[in-house]
């Protein structure tokens, strides 16, 4: 097994590091305090090619492999999880889903703009009443002549305020459970669609997260993404790869925690020597370093499986579960290394912890990942 990077992968990793240093790092604290990253970052992400990494070249992407995608996601997560999330959702949950499930017309309409960062995508699955139990969603799409009319509310939608197109999951047939769910491509300027930005988030404060309210939103039948009634399959196949991306972002948080804790431990002096000399501080650093390595290896395994066309869904759940819990541990340990200064937002550890916390919640909570892994182990569904 070769755990090294190819020349192309190393080059894309370097590109991402350079991008973060130039375009993200100088603004991280200000964006977090302002509760908004500068929107021009979307265009810049498109120009550097990060919004089309795994998309075919004929649609404006660079046709890169999934390990390259993970490397970029890790670096963005190391820089700012809010920016990382913009890419994970627009590329991973929207652009990639249109490439996998869309008609040629849908691909030609959206992919070049999405990969260029001229348009942004969001993914509308969660509702106020259905989160983990997404298959029971209640948003309704009713066929009316050549159109569908959609009514419902979507909650916690990343990129929601800014997005130009939303993948909206709605119940379009009377089949019970998730069998009646379909996916629709809904331009966000469609009459009847309103967005309410969600403020006061614990972390990912720079990210535009919104509630989407759909009132008699009329879309043509050609807006159907994938076959009617197969929307839940569309959602689950998308989220399996999405979990790899979240996990890679968590490795970035964990690595950033190690970077800042190490640097601080080498500078801060207590009891006449730098705190790096104290054994219990070294224990904190060693625990972080171990989590970083273990999480990264799990993520790379998923990318490798995908790139070799092998089954990866359960491995993606394991990587997401471990990496998200590890990111919380690492950020918390880093904060401890900083002592009281860790509690102040001029120092990075607190933001890492706030940003890490949501990773155990979205794209399937830690409990849901455990149920997916448990089902695979036992053959018994405990949902
Ligand atoms: P619930 O499902 O109500 O869960 C509450 C608790 O019960 C959790 O601890 C959960 O693990 C537990 N639980 C539930 N069912 C079980 C069970 N069967 N067994 C054991 N425990 C269980 N959604 C989107 O569609 N698109 C987005 O872009 C998006 N972005 C998000 C961004 C942010 C910042 C946040 C906070 C959320 C986002 N979400 C998004 C929603 C996210 O995916 C949901 O919050 C998540 O799936 C959990 O759903 P819930 O919040 O309704 O919690």
Automatic annotation (TrEMBL):
Domain Acyl-CoA oxidase/dehydrogenase middle intervals: 122-217
InterPro entries (UniProt xref): Acyl-CoA_DH_CS, Acyl-CoA_Oxase/DH_mid-dom, Acyl-CoA_Oxase/DH_mid-dom_sf, AcylCo_DH-like_C, AcylCo_DH/oxidase_C, AcylCoA_DH/ox_N, AcylCoA_DH/ox_N_sf, AcylCoA_DH/oxidase_NM_dom_sf
Source taxon at top rank: Bacteria
Record-given protein name: Acyl-CoA dehydrogenase family protein
The family this protein is said to belong to: Belongs to the acyl-CoA dehydrogenase family.
Keyword Cytoplasm: no
Species for this entry: Streptomyces fragilis
PROSITE patterns membership: ACYL_COA_DH_2 (PS00073)
PANTHER family: ACYL-COA DEHYDROGENASE (PTHR43884), ISOVALERYL-COA DEHYDROGENASE, MITOCHONDRIAL-RELATED (PTHR43884:SF12)
Ranges of residues in domain Acyl-CoA dehydrogenase/oxidase N-terminal: 6-118
Co-factor(s): FAD
SUPFAM superfamilies reported in the protein's UniProt record: Acyl-CoA dehydrogenase C-terminal domain-like, Acyl-CoA dehydrogenase NM domain-like
Phylogenetic lineage: Bacteria, Bacillati, Actinomycetota, Actinomycetes, Kitasatosporales
Gene3D superfamilies on file: Acyl-CoA dehydrogenase/oxidase, N-terminal domain, Butyryl-CoA Dehydrogenase, subunit A, domain 2, Butyryl-CoA Dehydrogenase, subunit A, domain 3
Keyword list, A-Z: FAD, Flavoprotein, Oxidoreductase
């Amino acid at each position: 097994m070769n755990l090294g990077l190819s020349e192309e992968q190393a080059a894309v990793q370097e590109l991402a590091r350079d991008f973060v240093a130039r375009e993200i790092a100088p603004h991280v604290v200000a964006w977090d305090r302002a509760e908004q990253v500068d929107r021009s970052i979307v265009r810049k992400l498109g120009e550097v090619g990060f919004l089309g990494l795994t998309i075919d070249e004929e649609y404006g992407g660079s046709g890169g492999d999934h390990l390259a995608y993970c490397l970029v996601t890790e670096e963005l997560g190391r820089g700012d999880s809010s920016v990382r999330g913009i890419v994970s959702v627009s590329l991973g949950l929207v652009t990639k889903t249109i490439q996998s499930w869309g008609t040629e017309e849908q691909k030609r309409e959206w992919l070049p703009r999405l990969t260029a960062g001229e348009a942004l995508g969001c993914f509308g699955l969660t509702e106020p009443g259905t989160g983990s139990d997404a298959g029971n969603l209640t948003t309704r799409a009713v066929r009316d002549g050549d159109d569908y009319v959609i009514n419902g509310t979507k909650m916690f939608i990343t990129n929601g305020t800014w997005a130009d197109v939303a993948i909206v999951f709605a119940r379009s047939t009377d089949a019970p459970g998730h069998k009646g769910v379909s996916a629709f491509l809904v331009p966000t300027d469609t009459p009847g669609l309103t967005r309410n930005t969600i403020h006061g988030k614990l972390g990912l404060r720079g990210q535009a997260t919104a509630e989407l309210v759909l009132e008699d939103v009329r879309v043509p039948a050609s807006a159907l993404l994938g076959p009617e009634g197969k929307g839940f399959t569309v959602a689950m196949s998308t989220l399996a790869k999405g979990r790899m991306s979240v996990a890679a972002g968590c490795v970035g948080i964990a690595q950033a925690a190690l970077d800042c804790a190490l640097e601080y431990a080498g500078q801060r002096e207590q009891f006449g020597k730098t705190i790096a000399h104290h054994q219990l501080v070294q224990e904190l650093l060693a625990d972080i370093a171990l989590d970083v390595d273990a999480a990264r290896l799990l993520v790379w395994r998923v990318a490798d499986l995908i790139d070799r066309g092998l089954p990866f869904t359960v491995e993606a759940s394991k990587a997401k579960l471990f990496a998200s819990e590890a990111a919380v541990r690492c950020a918390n340990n880093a904060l401890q290394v900083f002592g009281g200064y860790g509690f102040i937002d001029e120092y990075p550890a607190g933001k890492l912890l706030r940003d890490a916390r949501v990773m155990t919640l979205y794209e399937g909570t830690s409990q849901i990942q455990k149920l997916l892994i448990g089902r695979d182990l036992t053959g018994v569904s405990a949902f």
